[in-house]
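Listing S7. Sequence submitted for prediction.
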Amino acid sequence: MRPLRPPQAQGRHLAGRIRLPDLLGPRRPDTGHLPAIDKYLCSFQRWLPGHLTSITDPGHAKTIRLFATWRVLPRLRTRAERSHITPSIRRFAAEQIKYATAFLQWLGERNSTLASCGQIDVDAWFAENTEHARTCLRAFLNWAMQGRHCRRSLSIPAMKVSRRAALSQDERLDALGRLLTDTEISMRLRVAGAIVLLYAQPVSRISRLTVDDVIRDGDTVLLRLGEPALPVPEPVADLLLEHIANRDNMSTAANPASRWLFPGRRAGQPSRPDHLSALLNEVGVPVAAARGAAIRQQLLELPAPVVADALGYHHKTTTRLRNETGGTWSRYAPGDHTRSPAGWAPRRTGDRS
């Protein structure tokens, strides 16, 4: 019979079983090379073994390892392949692991386990913790029920959705006017804030814009956020072009030819969206409230499908927001209105009506 390892050694043993090739995923069949990997995915993968090592109960460590391997990591990889992982997504993935670990420890203190956990335990934990903690634990409980690690009859309390009120139109215009005239605010924050206030863009997307997304068409400046590219009004256009000519973080040896509209301090990387968002809040542009005001104003002026295509939103999102704002374009049909319907032909002059 093999001797039992001490709890700390058990954690190291489990952590050691997570091999780097497994974390990176399979090689590409066409080239045999490992796929490109997102830096925040790498960051999470470096953090995970250390967290597993810190779990003293070997049963808990095994459960958390399974949860990370079969739920959290696949979701992160899918996101990285589809677009990119933001710092907030990386942070939320780690918090899902941390709160799942804390929940198992909490059950142990109640002389219970995940397998024996009852509805009274779930309700008690949800009652004792914050809404953020409940949101982070939700994925773990769903995974545990689907995998029969706990009773499938458990009911997870409904999630409360709270949205910050959007800026009023007057507040939005005041903020935009301040960005256009206040030279004490850094140029990149003035431009980033104007894009939020005009085009309702999330900071995670703004940070990944490149100078190639800014198009000069004669005297007109266009910004490509969706299709078609949108015209930039004159005061903001001048600010945008001045920013491109004098971007921050371009003087270092690592960034002399950066194409990012908002270059970061690290070589070849854009500004971190969480850092950019915090700076915008400091200069009086609360990003979520500003986006809410901008998208609602766009939907009062244009049909929801047009706004969705031009700003890169999903059609369902703009339709829902249009209904909330009482927009008047409810009968506008989505699609390409430049093409004629199938089978249609223009009426000739001699045709009878």
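Caption to Listing S7: primary sequence and predicted structure tokens for the chain studied. Strands lie at 214-217, 220-223, 230-231. Residues 58-82 form the longest helix (25 residues).
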